[in-house]
Specification:
This protein has helices at 2-31, 42-52, 75-83, 99-105, 143-160, 165-191, 208-214, 232-244, 259-270, 296-311, and strands at 35-39, 56-60, 86-89, 110-113, 199-204, 217-222, 249-253, 276-281. It has 312 residues and is of the alpha/beta class.
């Protein structure tokens, strides 16, 4: 009896190994022949999925809750970049600690910043935020500008893989129509907020394009990049502004620690001005994969609905 059990166990192990090997082979076959793309932030990864469709296998480096301003590439990331046929990144120094890597990769493969083809006159600069910095990299918060990024992905894929260029263009046409509807929907929802209440206060200055596009005054405790921490004066200045203008709600961000914004809230409370957390917004990273907020369109809708509910 014991011998029979041993034989059965052995056969079961062989079957399990065979099944695992077969599954791995199927996964390899599924990816075989596809364009291998590595993207940095989730918003770009989502564009590539939408436009690349069945012809592209895309890997995103930065997951939910990850701050691209501070992100340092791991050895595993370098391998993913090295194995890719195409690399897409945002540019405008969003991925500031990876610039040298992109420059090196560009010498041997297609490496594209999705912001490169956007007319610089359409971009915000640090000077608009009272800072002597580069262009504001948070272009995805102006849906019309992000449509330009989608067009860059479309054209890059079509040029790299002309055999499927028509599919990329067709997928892009559908996706761009969805983005146009998103832009119009966002503008309509923000207009429902009383004009005097259209003030968006967040942990760092990521929403400038959003404010420009949809008519909101935007204030961030930190600057464009989270690499520079907010100081005591930043906290007291913002606290005083909120009290003076009777602003009742501020917003936290999924990828930025809330310690400094909590200090503003506490400071205002001590002066007799209670401030509520209006909700959590996605700024430099999308939501968890598999959730509505884990897509670009779902992320924007979540942010807009959260803002409107808190300020309307």
């Amino acid at each position: 009896m014991r011998r029979l059990l041993k034989i059965a166990f052995f056969i079961g192990c062989i079957a399990l190994i065979t099944a695992c090997g077969s599954g791995a082979g199927e996964r390899g076959a599924e990816a075989e022949g596809k364009i291998k793309v590595t993207a940095t932030i989730g918003m770009i990864t989502d564009i590539v999925r939408e436009i690349g469709g069945e012809h592209v296998a895309v890997t995103g480096l930065m997951k939910a809750g990850v701050d691209p301003h501070l992100y340092k590439a791991s050895q595993g990331d370098i391998k993913k970049l090295d194995q890719a046929d195409i690399i897409f990144y945002n540019g405008l120094h969003l991925e500031g600690k990876m610039v040298e890597i992109f420059e090196n990769m560009a010498k041997k493969k297609t490496t594209v910043a999705v912001s490169d083809r956007i007319d610089r006159s359409m971009l915000r600069t640090g000077a608009e935020n009272g800072m002597d910095t580069e262009y504001d990299p948070h272009i995805w918060f102006h849906v019309k500008l992000w449509m330009k990024a989608a067009e860059t992905v479309r054209d890059t894929l079509a040029e790299h893989d002309p055999a499927h260029a028509d599919d990329y263009r067709k997928n892009a046409e559908t996706y761009l129509q969805e983005l146009q509807r998103l832009h119009e929907e966002t503008a309509e929802k923000i207009e429902s907020i009383p004009e005097q209440s259209r003030v968006l206060v967040t942990a760092h200055d990521a929403f400038g394009y959003f404010g420009d596009a949809y008519g909101m005054k935007v204030m961030g405790l930190q600057g464009i990049s989270t690499a520079s921490e907010a100081g005591t004066k930043d906290v007291t200045d913002l606290r005083d502004y909120l009290i003076e203008h009777n602003i009742k709600a501020v917003f936290i961000e999924s990828s930025v620690p809330r310690k400094a914004i909590d200090a503003v809230i506490q400071g205002a409370k001590e002066k007799g001005h209670p401030i509520a957390i209006g909700g959590e917004l996605f700024s430099d990273a999308m939501g968890e994969e598999g959730t509505p907020e884990g897509t670009y369109i779902g992320m924007i809708r979540h942010n807009v609905d959260t803002i409107v509910e808190a300020l309307k």
